[in-house]
Amino acid sequence: MSDSTTSVDPRRWKALIFIALAQLMVVLDATIVNIALPSAQADLGISDANRQWVITAYALAFGGLLLFGGRVADLWGRKRTFIIGLVGFALASALGGAASNEGVLLGARALQGVFGALLAPSALSLLAVTFTEARERAKAFGIFGAIAGGGGAVGLILGGVLTEYMNWRWTFFVNIPFAVIAAVGALLVIREPAGSRNPSKLDVPGVILATLGLVSLVYGFTRAESDGWGAGMTIGLFVAAAVLLGAFVLVESKVKSPLLPLRVLTDRNRAGVYTSLGLAVIGMFGLFLFLTYYMQIVKGYTPVTTGLAFLPMIVGMITGSTQIGARLMTRVRPRLLMAPGFLLAAVGMFLLTGIDLDTSYPALILPAFLLLGLGMGTAFMPAMSLATHGVQPRDAGVASAMVNTSQQVGGAIGTALLNTIAASATTAYATSHAKSAPSVDLLKLESMVHGYTAAIWWAVGILAVAAVIAFTMVTTGHQGGSGPVARSGDGADTAEGADAEADVPIPVMAH
């Protein structure tokens, strides 16, 4: 009997419950505050110029510290980092919910980002080192992928209910029971496999360069949305990000114990996953942003009705992730799930380019949401699994962090890029139709819808590019090997299984 067989954790499925619960909390928090922001702004007297910082403070801390959080998980232990992240996130949420002024709220959001950067990569890496048998790994990542994909829409629903029937503070307080239950469950049932830590010293120069580079990049896209792409500050931030991240790559290639071992990035398949996931998130963030405004402002839906309207997408994501992706992952090459999944999502997005002032929800929006959810669920599940499949156990944390980093950066790009496109198209339409419009109010609504559809067309193209990248770059066989902690003799006859042998470096795939 192999080592991997004898070391299987009998409580691993209970552990999955608490890992998934923590992931749900992090993902839904990214959207739940958006719904509550207008109420919080009015209550605390936050200016229009500063309200973006409620979102930006979290995004900068979370996106900038993800790689550091992944490395800390490998160094301290994933279970310990997971619990610290949960406790810290709960305390930061309590502080945000009790905030009496703008400064406290912004500080709480930044702290949420800091602890989220510890929590997110440790959760995914715990999953990667806990589930190593191919079929079990497929089921576990199917559940995790469905939660990661659908959590944003759940946040919209929950945010609408809490804001409409209670008040905005509960969009923060609601995180506390999630965190407490997940932390207690982690203490009781999660067991981290022995020998999977990376005891090497922390790469301090790498931490500084990566953090500053990612913060500059994320903040650059934020400023592009508010100031324009040609503004001096925007260009300066992008130049700084390029210099800092270039220096980071150089340092990582020279130091003995890098923050992000380049072997994690130079694998062709993992690079394809990170790139295609990042692009897909650009399209999805645009969808949530514009459809939320469309349904509330143009269609007149309440916050709760708007949230409920996204439910079919969640159903589609869960179905695609657990019933298609999980069932086929061990028998079908990842690109044959990822590429068709992204294309199916692109078809759903294409349907949404047909929205107008009188669009029927059952006739157009509902089928579009179902296709989007089904496609993204089918693609996300094998992608998230492949991102950590075949990684040395000591690198599981940083490989997991890269998944979150690609999504976070993709979200920042999506919000800035698509919002800028929508605003430009809205202005152009309003200018060209000003004289022929029957009323100012009607012109305003028609201009908004035109702007949304222009941005959604871009999202269609971006999802199509994600499909092409997934099909051309992800060339590995199906994920039927033994997984990331497979050792010689475990029957890991696939390339990924061979890559995962305990002390063998992951080879660079030269194609």
From TrEMBL:
Membrane spanning residue stretches: 15-37, 52-69, 81-99, 111-129, 141-162, 168-190, 202-222, 228-251, 272-295, 301-324, 336-355, 361-388, 409-431, 451-474
Mind telling me which InterPro entries this protein's record contains?
EmrB-like (IPR004638), MFS (IPR011701), MFS_dom (IPR020846), MFS_trans_sf (IPR036259), Sugar_transporter_CS (IPR005829)
Region (Disordered) spans which residues? 480-511
Q: What does the UniProt keyword field contain? A: Antibiotic resistance, Cell membrane, Membrane, Transmembrane, Transmembrane helix, Transport
Ranges in coiled-coil conformation? none
Keyword Signal listed: no
Q: How does it sit in the membrane?
A: Multi-pass membrane protein
Entry's CDD domains? MFS_MMR_MDR_like
Where found in the cell? Cell membrane
- Pfam families listed in its UniProt record: MFS_1
- The name under which this protein is listed is MFS transporter
Record organism: Streptomyces chrestomyceticus
